[in-house]
Amino acid sequence: MTQKDYRILLYYKYIAIEDPVAFAEEHLALCNEFGLLGRILVGYEGINGTVSGTVEQTEAYMNHMKADPRFSDIMWKIDQAEGHAFKKMHVRPRQEIVHLGLENDINPLEITGDYLSPKEFMERMQEDHTVIIDARNDYEFDLGHFRGAIRPDIENFRDLPAWMEAHKEEFDGKKILTYCTGGIRCEKFSGWLKREGYGESVGQLHGGIATYAKDSEVKGQLWDGQMFVFDRRRSVPINQVEHVIVGKDFFTGEPSERYTNCANPECHKLMLCEEKHEAFYMRSCSDDCRRAERNFFVEENGWTKEQIEEQIAKIAEVQNSSL
Q: Which of 42, 61, 259, 262 could pair covalently with 20 via S-S, beta carbons 3.0-4.6 A apart?
């Protein structure tokens, strides 16, 4: 691996912040002073962020945070990069830094699942009577996941409790493991599982997939595909030993690890799609989106309504022939 000039930081900390609005305003000024780009959420329950900058800029930012007793023990996930992973710098105040959609919310400082190191998590995954629940959204799972993990049919994290309640009997007598990108969602979700009495035990991957990927002992093993990330990269490799592609092209079902958005801005659906199929399917998830009042693919290529209908007919012909 070659040394790169930029780094991407992923981090969070559940800690009481009295005035998130004032904190966010001051923190934005700080990030701008350092020259960082990224997204940070600040709430009464803590801070959740991902930023990019040069090695010097990110080092200065981490040193600043470590000097604050509230954030001195943050577990930083650090990726090398060739440039910025974001276009702008946002620091936004929120009621919650993670929204699980609960009337009676979970405070991870009071209840959360057992922390498991990467090695412990890998060992537990292979034990009998163990179920692994992916706490991320469906499109994240579709790109990559731990081998044998359960894929809850959810588009948003806040929908996870309802899905779990509908399948509660399936977890009776099981040892439950859960994981997410950096660990922040699992803190709340695993706490909710414990509070609601799911399974015989509840364990979470401490530091998330991002930490598991860099562990020198486990080397990302038992992970298939890539990990979805919420920045320009869209995906990063995890398994250092073998690479198994699990993603499937939205249109053809072929192996794919390339995400793009539907060209209809009102839809914006994330789709796995190989570049060679984009033009044919007009980078649109449906005929309604292809005919939408605004379609970026149509605008970029200057297509007329006649050309749109002609292409839709070609798509239908291909789809019908494959039935």
A: 42
